[in-house]
Design brief:
The complex is a heterodimer.
Chain A: H1 8-34, H2 37-62, H3 68-86, H4 106-125, H5 128-139, H6 144-151, H7 155-174
Helix pairs in contact in A: 1-2, 1-3, 1-5, 2-3, 3-6, 5-7, 6-7
Chain B: H1 5-15, H2 23-45, H3 59-86, H4 91-114
Helix pairs in contact in B: 2-3, 3-4
The chains are: A mainly alpha, B mainly alpha.
């Protein structure tokens, strides 16, 4: 017999809520992870299909904790498989459509675009785990605990990971030809 | 953290701004998820009524009735949203109408499944 304690109708409702709450998170993560909209769409679709299949068990095992780290971990694993299958890194720098926020004057826009482009380029040069941690923190607004769950690390190790990622990025942005570890 | 980090963190927030998924992806994904819940209903429809004469065959279609019936809930949730998106000016009344139409559709689906029994 199944260990299920919830009716399927309730599970479906809760999954619909999870989907609505986090489809943007999964898409944003996927996009910044793979660097193009086409693969990001595939990844988002596959993530939710896999999540749907395992939703009941995930709910049982989450003990009431938020399921966003679980969703992002699915996307993370699928992205890793994608690269393994294709044996390659992201095809190109982030698409031109990357939004710019809170920049108003033309001068600011030009200056800001250059600066943001340098930062994005720097992010792509980071090792995978550091890049992912920064995407989760800054694109999705996840806290250390959520990121730790998504990456399968301890809270302390995650804090160190993010700190080192920012330090390395500072080195890259400040010195585009070098960039410390 | 270093002194430069706060500025870099602001730049990171701007550079890694969240991205809205394209409408066609959302539509495709919602359709796929809705179809998943319909599979159980189709399982029931394809069941040969003649097989029902044997009580040993009752368990499987009975389970499909349960899954198919509850699948209607997911259909209502996702279809109502799709319809509301197609009629954004309708506001709350439109959303309520869309939900009622979706509920009506789901009810008809369940009646269609159970009508001959």
């Amino acid at each position: 017999m199944s260990e299920s304690t919830k009716p399927k109708a309730q599970l479906d409702r809760e999954f619909a809520e999870l989907y609505r709450a986090h489809v943007r998170d999964v898409y944003s993560y996927s996009y910044y992870r793979v660097g193009n909209h086409h693969d990001a769409e595939d990844l988002t679709e596959q993530t939710f299909l896999q999540a749907y299949r395992h939703f009941e068990r995930a709910q049982r095992e989450s003990d009431g904790r938020p399921l966003r780290p679980w969703l992002i971990r699915i996307a993370h694993n699928l992205a890793a498989n994608l690269y393994r299958d294709r044996s390659r890194k992201p095809q190109a720098p982030i698409d031109e459509s990357t939004p710019l926020q809170a920049l108003h004057t033309t001068e600011e826009l030009v200056e800001g675009r250059d600066e943001l482009a340098r930062v994005l380029e720097g992010v792509t040069q980071l090792p995978d785990d550091r890049r992912e941690a920064l995407i989760m923190r800054f694109a999705l607004g996840m806290d250390n605990r959520e990121i730790a769950r998504a990456l399968g690390r301890s809270d302390g190790a995650t804090k160190v990971l993010i700190h080192r990622a920012i330090r390395q990025l500072e080195g890259i942005v400040g010195n585009p030809n070098g960039g410390g570890a | 953290m270093t002194e430069a980090a706060p500025n870099l963190e602001n730049l990171l927030r701007a550079a890694l701004a969240p991205i809205e998924p394209p409408d066609d992806l959302v539509h495709r994904l919602e359709s796929t998820l809705t179809n998943l819940t319909e599979i159980a209903a189709e399982e029931l429809e394809s069941w040969e009524l003649s097989a029902m004469r044997d009580p040993r065959n009752w368990l499987r279609p009975a389970a499909a009735v349960v899954v198919g019936g509850t699948a209607g809930t997911a259909l209502v949730v996702l279809r109502a949203r799709q319809r509301a998106k197609h009629h954004p000016r309708a506001g709350m009344a439109g959303a309520r109408d869309a939900a009622e139409r979706a509920l009506h559709d789901a009810g008809q689906g369940v009646r269609r499944l159970l009508g001959d029994r």
